[in-house]
């Protein structure tokens, strides 16, 4: 078993971002990354702090717009529309999860040119039609993991636990575009047997999946995140049996840092080509 070390990937991405920012003009540096948060989800709070801190590191302007979840759906809709209409907001995100399902439609308020996290249904329509040049940050993060270990997904049995709009759905779309048909495990509960070559999880349920319930040789990519006793933990229980597994991208520390960097690359309009993550043999 090998734990995925994201540091090589993050170093490469950091350098590309720094090189680009160093060449930006003063007017380009005035562009603002807008971050909209509805409510007070503690996991969201931690991710937003990481995003703002990372932007500050490179002199990228980021602004948080925090909306009270007790506002009506219409008031929240009006606020989000107004924020994205600001000319200085050249790209932005709505931090997930939202506090209630009736607000899911606000994701479609993100203008196509400003949708750097690919949250709007309209963005995915363009992507499916080949009219969208950027890719979902979570998909890019997963690809970095696959490239690191030279994993060929074709012919693999891939199970996805968590059908969320931010992780599960984009990853499934990408896999289908590559001719791979993943299976969603919508009703997975702790103790269920999990048989796959690759398991990708993003439920936000702490330590949902135990290694002893997974078949030998399976690799695990954990996008899940929740807070237990003040500490961030993933969907996969790293304290469970793991020696029979192949590669594990843990949470925290695995996909999160990569997703953040790819989000910023989308904001800056950077290309993803010529990124060599392959692990030395």
TrEMBL record:
Protein's UniProt keywords contain Amino-acid biosynthesis: yes
Keyword list, A-Z: Amino-acid biosynthesis, Hydrolase, Methionine biosynthesis, Multifunctional enzyme, NADP, One-carbon metabolism, Oxidoreductase, Purine biosynthesis
Tetrahydrofolate dehydrogenase/cyclohydrolase NAD(P)-binding domain ranges (all copies): 141-268
Domain of life from the UniProt record: Bacteria
Residue ranges annotated for the Tetrahydrofolate dehydrogenase/cyclohydrolase catalytic domain, each copy included: 6-117
Pathway: One-carbon metabolism; tetrahydrofolate interconversion
Single Gene Ontology BP annotation: purine nucleotide biosynthetic process
Oxidoreductase keyword on record: yes
Protein name per UniProt: Methenyltetrahydrofolate cyclohydrolase
